[in-house]
Amino acid sequence: MSDPRGDVSVIIDGTEHTMRLTFAAALKIEKRIGCGLLKLANRMAQMEVTTEEVATVIHAGVTAAGGKLTFDQVGEAVMAAGLIDMAKPATELVLAALMAGKRPPEGDAEKKAAE
């Protein structure tokens, strides 16, 4: 059964992983980051996020989709790939959850980040 919130792919150490934002994953993100998904999405659109926040979103999404990566593995991948490049799929995942699985138009997250 496919997740109604939409899956997003992320490349970690050369391997494609699926991210899924379930209810449990959303709660985990909100608890660790200390703010709601809407506020996080606004900060992501402004590129005002930390390495830990991006790693938190990616880790929660990957593990919710059945991935077995540790938080440290994801954090190292964020550092290796660069915060900006890894923030893109993390932002797409959060936006997909807020939009009930509907994807934002191509380039929307990047346009908002550039403004």
Relevant terms:
single chain, 115 residues, mainly alpha, two-stranded antiparallel ribbon, 6 helices
Question: How do the SSEs run, as a string of H and E?
Answer: EEHHHHHH
What are the low-pLDDT stretches, counting only 5+ consecutive residues below 50?
none
* N- and C-termini, Cα separation: 38 Å
**Class computed from helices, strands and strand pairing:** mainly alpha
Total DSSP helices:
6
Give a description of the structure.
- By secondary structure, the chain is mainly alpha-helical.
- It has helices spanning 23-33, 37-45, 51-64, 71-81, 83-98, 108-114, and strands spanning 7-12, 15-20.
- A two-stranded antiparallel sheet has the order 1-2.
- Helix 3 packs across helix 4 and helix 3 (51-64) crosses helix 5.
- The model has no long low-confidence stretch (mean pLDDT 87).
